Amino acid sequence: MGVRESASRSVTPHPSEGRLLNLHRLLLARAADPVRVAVIGAGKFGSMFLHQAPRTPGLRIHGIADLSVARARVALARIGWDAALIEMTTITEDAAALIADPQVEVVVEATGDPAAGLRHARHAIAHGKHVVMVNVEADVLAGPVLAREAAAAGVVYSMAYGDQPALVAEMVDTIRAAGFSVVAAGKGTKYLPRYHASTPDTVWDFYGLTAEQAREGGMNPRMFNSFLDGTKSGIEMAAIANAIGLAPPEDGLAFPPCGTAQLPNVLRPHNEGGILPRKGVVEVISSLTREGAEIPDNLRWGVYVVFEGETDYARRCFAEYGVATDTTGRYAALWRPYHFIGLELGVSVASAALRREPTGCSTDWAADCVAVAKRPLRAGEVLDGEGGATVWGKCIPATRSRALGAVPIGLAHGVALARDVAEGAMVTEADLAPRGGGIADILALRAALAPA
Fold first, then answer.
1. How far is 77 from 178, CA to CA, in rounded Å?
2. Which fold has domain 368-447?
3. What's the pTM?
4. I need a labelling partner for 342 at 20 to 30 A (CA). Which of 57, 66, 79, 411 fits?
5. Share of the chain above pLDDT 70, in %
């Protein structure tokens, strides 16, 4: 059965659907006149959403923009779109024209290119479209500015549900709405200190794959290297800090080894037996011990929040209802063991269009993700950015980034060094040779940010 047939069947009302609440009910009400969506970028995340959208009553993919129409068509066939659905959908290389199409209500930016992401988001906002920003790299560069521009235009600028930052933001919002104070929040990942030096040429060794196996699986070495070397974690924690008012670590994430059973013991203040310098921070936990052994109850694919029971009564309730707490019963943890990536993105699209509410949104510039040298770098070398062989991204406070003139990882690509940079040192603007004029707009957006 083709996707279009199964999608059309899925909108037939069920007798109980009149009693359904919230997003699903709102989507059902739009089944006859669905929310029209433009997807910019048909890579892995975009493809996962494109797989689910035709199965979601109330949503319709109006068009897809990708650098290669042929590649996008191959991706659509691979995820199960039938030929008829592909032919009735606009597929173009002209993202600007698709965004400006008056029929489009929501733009999903899923390119992964920070410069393109900023350009597409601002174009969408200028044309009165809601923006769901899958492109966390772009969000960390200037998300609060985009959020302000969207609010002024009367549209929604949103994080992407299914990606970990939006899921963390949701968990934190839930805990705060219940009247609890958040101690720490973040995600899990596979981490060892030596991973910071990983390059696209060595990344598959760390994953236990051959280069041929990776190619057969369609795996991008730069993308997977960004996951491994700590950059993606730094970007995502910066996005979370900017969205929910938690502080980034002063000198980068610690990546403590930790399973779910130990979350509230490890992620509590250091003067109470934990590792945190203070309450109210973002942190990433490692699924591996420092010796490289896998932690049995690890949270490699999940997200968490640690919060505080500030009264004896609350702590007694924790004990009575089996809440996971530390040894004192004061600190508790809630977690989700995995996320569905683009398969869940429709939640953001529906929330933006039907509730006019983001699923997480950068409001303050609290954190930045800056470039750090993976090895001794020499004057004249050209930085190769996220997932490359020269630098990795570290999450630090925005105040520190601005004071140092640190180069954000999203702008550490294709620019030469004017002087040597030591291994482990943050790259600063003073280390760079003069840039071309192509990033003037991005630098202007960055200049408008005021550290929180």
1. 45
2. Type Iii Antifreeze Protein Isoform Hplc 12 (3.90.1210)
3. 0.93
4. 411
5. 95
